[in-house]
Amino acid sequence: MAFPTSVNNQITDAVTQSNVKIVGEAPAMAIASMYQTMAHSTGILFENSVSAQQQQNTLSQAATNQGVMQVYSVDTTAAAGASEKIAQTGVSDNLTSLLSVLQSFSGPQQSKGL
Known about the structure:
The protein has helices spanning 9-72, 76-87, 91-113. It is mostly helical.
């Protein structure tokens, strides 16, 4: 002790030692606090990453569902009508084909009668 005081020497020594202890442990406590903060931030980073992946998965499922719905919503009769218009076959061609098929079933017996 530098100067004599009216306080007991044991008390001043105890206070001095506790102050030295606190100052000595401060860097370790600061680094421990920094590590804890980094670990917490990394945990939040992973949580956000998983959440983003789940949202992306939901969006891709919704997009796939919309695509399948569009494929299945194509009207088949409209497609058949469009292909008939492209082929330029109409009712008269269908009736002629039907008549030739019916004549082929009747065979030569009916043609003799005509």
